[in-house]
Amino acid sequence: IENKLTWFLNKYRIRHIFEDSKGRIFVSTYSDYGLIIFDNEQIQTITTKDGLTGNKIRLTYEDKKGNIWVGTTGGVNVLNFNEHKLSITKFTQDEGLSNNFIMAIEEDKKGNIWIGTDGGGLNCFKDNKIQKISTGEGLSSNIVFKIYNDKDGLLWIATTGGLTLIENEKIFNFTVKDGLYNDTIFNMVFDNCEKIWLGTVNGIFSVEKSQLIDYKNGKTKKINYIFYDKNDGLKGGITPTSWNFITKDSVIYFSTIFGVSILNCNNISINKKAPNTIIEGIVVDNKIRQKNKDIYFIE
To answer: What is the C-alpha separation between 24 and 1, in angstroms, rounded?
Structure first.
């Protein structure tokens, strides 16, 4: 399987790789192969010919019941493998979705399934009904890249308009005006220290979850972040299609434009010493005066 998986990775555009609770590996491709499943030395491909709503697969997700949700550019599909017989239930705009281009899937603690779309905001599968949430209901943007349900049952949504928090069905948005580095957030990861790592086109920045909660509750007036880019060792910026991964011991793998960068959250050193100030020149009467040429500085 390893050799065959490598062959697929080298040949086709891969959007996501996921291993479910039964050890099956789901490879989401942007090709005629659609979804590729590796199961006990067996390889199965599922495409529109089998009932999928699209062959361009964005991601797969397993819910608590063992169902596999497949997000495509043509809608979302639910795979059920009862007695090795595959059944597919599809949901598109015809079935009530706000948008067919699926970007994110997440289950909350109550068993509701949240679907993020490219232009249609959020869709919540609750009590066999689809609830739509967009900017009209307070969402920061209708383009949703990632959704994360934390251990406290809080739902975090990364969008092109900032970071949205949904708590007890109430929506709160964090943006640059509140202290974030960037409003367009492609990715987010929570480490074991309750710190949120947010990916942008220029790099990544981290924010304490407790600080966001305090700001929401009016206990603080500003959000402080720490920004990391190529000057800190990051290989490049984060892309809209990237996925980051964190291990159980809080080692984060960031997928960047130029490769993978690895960060050990347990071993982060911060240089608190202010840099030395060096005067290289001044501007007088709109003319640049350089040191040792036009003017002499006493240091």
So the answer is: 11
